[in-house]
Amino acid sequence: MIKTTTFAVMHFVIAFTVAYVLTGDVVIGGVVAMVEPAVNTVAFYFHERVWQRIERRRRQPAEPAFGQSTLPA
Question: What is the pTM of this model?
Fold first, then answer.
């Protein structure tokens, strides 16, 4: 949990700093620092779902080509 917390703080500080440097506005920097991690969290959820689907497909045995039997010879 400590690692997650420190990463969240680091993410907030970086988002704030980049927005502040680009705009020169503390309020905009703060808004971006709050909104960006929330949007990133939602995007990460869908990213993980896509990768889980890809991994499931990789684990499934390949289907035989048309006309090939799956019975042992």
Answer: 0.59
